[in-house]
Records
---
Amino acid sequence: MTNLLELDDVQARYGAVQALHGVSLTVNEGEVVSVLGANGAGKTTTLRAISGTVSRSGTIELFGKTLKGGPEAAARAGVAHVPEGRGTFVELTVEENLRLGAYTRRDRTVKDDIKRVSEYFPWMLERGGQRAGTLSGGEQQMLALARALMSRPRLLLLDEPSLGLAPMIVREFFRTVLHLNENEGLTVLVVEQDARIALASSSRAYVLEVGRVALTGSSADLQGDESIRRSYLGY
Amino acid sequence: MLAATFADFMQQVVSGLASGGIYAALALALVIIHRSTGVINFSQGEMATLCTYIAWTLIVNHGWSYWPAFAATLAFSFAFGVVTHRVVIRPVERGNLLRVVIVTIGLLIAINGFVVWQWSGEPQALRSPFGTDTIDIGGVVISWQDVGTILVTLGIVILLWLLFQFTKIGLALRAAAVNPTEARLVGVRVTWMLALGWGLAAVLGAVAGMLTAPSVGLDPQMMQPILIYAFAAAVLGGIDSPFGAVVGGLALGVLLNVIGVYVDFVGAELKLPVALLVILVVLLVRPSGIFGHPEVKRV
């Protein structure tokens, strides 16, 4: 296995407030890795550091190449970041959202890709002209995922996809992500409040505590250890 | 008698549509910048005046014929808009919007000063590319200048609509305007999109200026009343609605023209206060305009 993503001693701050105090983690190609922890532990900031939406220091490498610059550069390097709270263009249509997903690509197969991606979400083709803002929360989350796929990402970053969704929808969402991981070899780094579903869907996990990695291990081990579950994961 | 009255009325409507097309073009420029940068560009009118002087210089001093000068002026205005954003607006864009507003007011004064210094305050004549002939359609006498104005503004609006609706760059422009954070995540270079928006707005302004000059004469203050009408049109249609700006512009043009002729005490001198009244009434009754979406603030 090759190291797809490597973070070494990454620090990040919002103005005067330091949110990450030196996070190191790796994601291998084809892996689903979850990042867990309480509110304010730095989960979202970790993803933001990777996609360059927060000012950061330390090194972040994608396939051994340092990621530099803002989110435009990260997107061009192959990072697709689905932020917390859906991250769709609510004023634009479903199809326009999908086309924007392919914005960084220069080839002319976007139409084929819309069809290919829509195979995972059959309703999207029929409702291509609908404004994204009129979709349900679950559908918007699916659209955000589909849009990320349109960029043919090397790394998918998911921030709290379960937020505000019904349990059944959350399970469907993670099923789709796993499906993509198996079928297309999609590498995923997912931040979740819902540790139970995140551990069930990932092979490894990192638990953050006040901006540092408190512990890491295989998802199965973390799930199996009752004291870890109680003190870090809250279930 | 009745037929003559009707023909008279239609004449007023058509010439109202012509001035309305000009308001619409400038209103659309205001809307494009408001949607992306979030401010009213108070220097939009002066930018248009400057571009019109460029056209005048090419035609009168350098002997260019009209349409090549028209095209060259559009190219110049696009570059002018882009550079204005990159050099003047972008450094103050972060933080308080009031800073940007004040900078656009500063630009208004600076460009006006430059125009007076460069070309003096003397009014100049820019001839119409459409001539001074008229046509008679069933008793309604219409000048070619009005027909040409309507066609050119409609043409430029349709071209822009095609650009925004059907091209990748247009989609990126819209994405950058409605949700810049998200747009950056999909790889759109948002600051360049804002600069492009300023360029397109300057092109619209230049078109408005070049169509205005033949009928009112080219002078450094030429676009100031037009900018007020464009404000009124944009507010009427909805400051965030490009479609609203066009409809608002045409409606205002017709309204002002008809009122000016048929309401005794208004006349040509009171058109400007009527436009201000329109702004006031719309802001009181329906602040988001006819086609705008009310701003929803989530708590």
---
Amino acid sequence: MAEDHDAVDKWEVQLRKGCLELAILASLWGGRLYGLELLRILENESDLVISEGTVYPLLSRLRSEDLLDAEWVEAELGHPRKYYRLTPAGRRRAVAMARIWARFSEKLDGLLRAVLKEER
Amino acid sequence: MTAASGKIDSYLRRVRSGLRGLPDGEVTDILNELRAHIVERLELASGPPDVAIESVLESFGRAEQIAALYVAENLVARAESSRTPWTILRSLFYWSTLSVIGFFVFMICVVGYGFGVCFFLAALMKPIHPEGVGLWYRNDPANFSLHVGGFSGSPGERELLGWWLVPVGCSLGGGTILLTTHFALWSLRRLRQPMR
């Protein structure tokens, strides 16, 4: 039973990890955001982030892949913030990933309906 | 200095020590961004900063893990950006200085690339020294031998491939280098740790 839980936990971590990149690109679809704003959206809308700091290395990679641009902006009050925005390549990647996700989840939902119905 | 700012400094020092090998400018940029996040979280937290800092840092994640993720992302990005054996080996060498698994992956890839280069060299040398380079075979139960290359077949050895060594050497060389590259990139991608 404990092994079962472990396996499900590992699977969930991998699933979250795999989806985080798409969630970040989708969060930035509406415009530029800095790290904390992005995290708030991810926390409220996606339930994907386990520890906050792990998002920053991912942002760094997306930037090195030219999917995101980043710039430091001096805030009127408080500290400078590093804002991220999607590049044209990032927008194309977001659309491509969103299409795959929508197709994939629609089909999987159909399969899962029977499992969840049985469980009730 | 308040206790909170001391804890932030100490946390960021731990991150910095895990980021060794990354360019200085990048490290400074990373630390500035993490500091900005932690300080703003702290300002938004309820209660005195010296107490709230513990939960802020806890929800941010372990300093060593954050640094390791940055290093992993950096290694993968560097290796994937060029995909040349030299860049990949440099990334793997850096990884080998950080972990035992990294060391083994590095060694396997050195051997893989080494074999690939040897196959290519044999194919290249065949037209230059047709009699001396080949796939040599000695069917002696006491002293069995099968090897590629060499500048002269030892007594009792027979060359098996002839001019086929050129296409076979090129294919095996290319295939081995390609396979090694795929293995290296696959290993590096697995280096990205789960988010916990």
---
Amino acid sequence: MTALAITGLMKSFGGLRVTNGVDLAVAPGERRLIIGPNGAGKTTLFNLVTGELAPDSGAIALFGQDITRTACRRRAHLGMARTYQIITLFPRDTILRNVVLALLGLSGLRWNPLIDLDRQHHLATRAGEALARVGLGHIADRPLTETSYGERRRVEIAMAMAQNPKVLLLDEPFAGLSIDERRDVQQLLAAIPRDVTIVMIEHDMDVALDLADRITLLHFGEVIVEGTRAEVVADPRTREVYLGE
Amino acid sequence: MKVRLMRGASAPRVASGFALFGLTTVPLWVGNSYYIDVSSQILLFAVFALALNVLVGYGGLVSLGHAGLFAVSGYTAGLMLQAGFGHTAAGIGAVLVTLLTSAVFAVLALRSTGISFLMITLALGQIVWGIAYRWADLTNGDNGVSISTRPAPFGISLAGAPSFYYATLVVFLLALVAMAAFVRSPFGASLCGTRDQARRMTALGYNVWLIRFLAFLFSGFWCAIAGLLYLYNKQFISPQVSALQASAEVLLMVISGGTATLMGPIAGAAIVVIMKYVVSAYVVRWNLVLGVIFVAIITFMPEGLVPGSVRIWGFAWRRWRALRPSGKPGPGKPGLGEPR
């Protein structure tokens, strides 16, 4: 069974075909890297997979279950989590509260208007553990506004991982990070257990290639090359897309 | 040697104690029944402003049609009483009809957020005003609806100004407790999340639309309660109550006092009502005074009167402690005036 199966996925914005018949099959536990130049349709593909956009045609299946028309919020409950290329966090809250909100999203407690959220210690404990795993346990109570960009990137990952996803979609997790921060995030991602399937968009080939089992090269909304790291790097079409003729 | 007022009592707690004492003794030190009635009005408009603050402050949804909901409640009860129903039936009927109207408002307005949400609620509020003003067969048009008696819950007559004030105070405190619980609850946190990052909330598994819809109903419920109190306070309701100006007024109460705080809307309600009913007796152009006050608040405390005062007070306090080396400044605990 495939963890994530995409078949014939199409999406146009007006006359522009952003996703043009994409087929993708990601095995359980696989680390899949999606690369491609700017405007290749990588983030759009993610938005289609998570349900933030509806495809024009084609199908998406999560562990054999068709989710093409499933609402975005339902997909989170089915075990899909994502991070954003442009950091999308809750600026008025502490780091811990951000992760608590991630946990609450999958909990029935989220509808409760009577109890005190701050007294739900099991949520705070689990959030603290998730933050400790990304190395932010010591500043869990810090307001988000007082954190660095690199720390926020890790909060993004902590929030996604706190939801215990089966499939984790990482949209440029290294974007804007310093060399040291990149190495930290790389180690953090390498430590994620293999029962989580990871699909990652990344421009930074140096750090991302080490993590990837297989690589898909996207160009003008189409899959150009797919294969192992060596195959894709050696393929002349990769050179053509990235380096020109 | 410093003497603490109460063991383990924090500043906000002491302040709330004093405020509660002040509120329960209003009829004793205000005396004049006109001013007791004005105090009742402050409290009922505070309930109204707290209701709107659920959407404006915590939901990030600025409504300009809430006077419509307030008026639907008052009119429903007024017309039911005129038709011969009892107070209980009229009260329940008013709440139910207002909740239903809120649901319709919400379904139509929640198709969007931001300025479109504001414009749709404005239009819906104007429809209510149109019905109240033009559909004279139903609503008696410009002449309004008057009722002859106030209810007597548990056999206690509310005919006098002091007894009505106490009844309003009880309802106001219930509303305040309900709001405080709501803000701290997981559902309240969910609503704040939809305000700050709606897209993220969806990806995290929240039903953003349903959260906003339920918050709208919660807001509508307390508008209904405030509308009922208004009708019984004045024993009269007219189309003016549902006009755009009334919606703008309650929105100003929320914004001037401080959105997303519990105390802000209450302070805002007090300012507007005092201007309208007290200062207007001495200053003909009281609207001008109110405008100057609003401009001053926006200039010096753009976050609103209550959080602004907390900020300025905290600043002054730290400066004062810094000048006296013996004191050790501690971190302030966020009180009820702190925005969420």
